Amino acid sequence: MVIKNSIIYILNNTLIKAFNFLLLPFYTAFLTTEDYGTINLIVSFVSVASYIVAFSLHAYVIRFYVDIKNDREQVKRFFGTMIVFVFLSGVIFLGIVSLLNSYFIAWIFKDINFYPTLLIALVGLVFSCVYSIYQDILKGMENATKYSITSICYFFIQLGFIIYFVVGLDWGANGVLMASLIANFVCFIYLLIDLFHNNLITICIDRKMLKNGLKYSIPLLPHNISTHITSFVSKIFINNSFSLTSVGLFSLATQFGSITDMIQSSVNIAFRPWFYDQLNKREKNYKKSITELSDILIWAYGIIFLLIALFSQEALLLFTNESYYRAWTVVPLIIIPFSIKTMYYFYINVLLYHKNATKFIFIATLSSSMINILLSAIFIPILDMYGSALADLIAMVIRVGIIVALSMHFEDIGYKLSTFVFLILINVFFISAGLIFSYTTFMYEISLINIAYKIFVVMIYLIIAGINLKKHIKPLILKLREKRS
To answer: Is the pLDDT of residue 401 over 60?
Structure first.
């Protein structure tokens, strides 16, 4: 189930990311770098605000469903409570920000108008938060197929309205935000129909369930906010120190980093329910099963990191116009912190499983985020977007170190820290080796010689990965055959 759902999640998210990259010529043709910066600054704000609105209940939806999935009446009241509470919370948040809009413009959204730009985004936020809870319901139910279908439908609905508003009406950044609002509203209506049709919701607020949910999720709020707020604050610093154009270039570069994170989080969506189930059952050699599957995933991630870091240059030079070319130079620097984050995904699941451990997670995320913001304030005015990448790297090392220490305190799953560190260093080495000529000779041009060299570097890495994966995959195949027989 983990492998099957992982494949579905990855294919779904990769397909959407692929379409987004294919649309880069469209975006760069009809949106200025300033428009692109405006959209991404607001999107970063929405990412942070969504956790505030939902009180970080997303994690609780997945965790608690495992405990009550065999009791239909509890499931209905649980889903209803989550949906109703998050919707009401979103409406209240919309009202508060609208009343204080002048302060938000002065402190955060320099050169961006509240009406209509921010207002459109805020209304869309209300429906987006509820839709996110619905997506987590599907994840918790391990219904990867329906999750993927709804995600793809959402993407194409949004795309259709983007084309209408941006190309047809020439609304620029406002057109993209309006398209997102409409897509979220349509999905909001759909999720209500789907939950009622499948008898999975009772419109109510169960105080006990909500209290337990908030008790679990509120300690996660600083953690979840901090993982997004650093990117948001970095964009604010870049905008205030340079311009929305620089924000646009940095945002384009971070899309490549988000691909690596998307792949890891997609696999983790499928891995986490299986991981919880393994710890619940604690069958013979359950730790060995967990570590063997984890080792396979680590090597697979490394291949993806290397490919994206090496060939992001050609992708940007092919699919964007000249004003966006400089964005590729920061992509490899963004990829490296995400490769370090691999450790975080495996160890954080231990803390999320132990309900009494969630209240400690914020120690890692909040402290590293504060350090990240401090370093960004120092580095960005000097190094522009490269300063943000450097701050991310240092902060990620600190974050992962704390999470690993906390995880080991609650339960030792059998992960080998030395293996993680070794694979990260191997990955950084191959990324650095593969980009020697890109940074020194072919910075803004596509060279067949450079491409051939990169392919050679990738082939060497694949050989090493293949040798190491072979010893893990064979036992896994034998176990699957034994279960089938």
So the answer is: yes
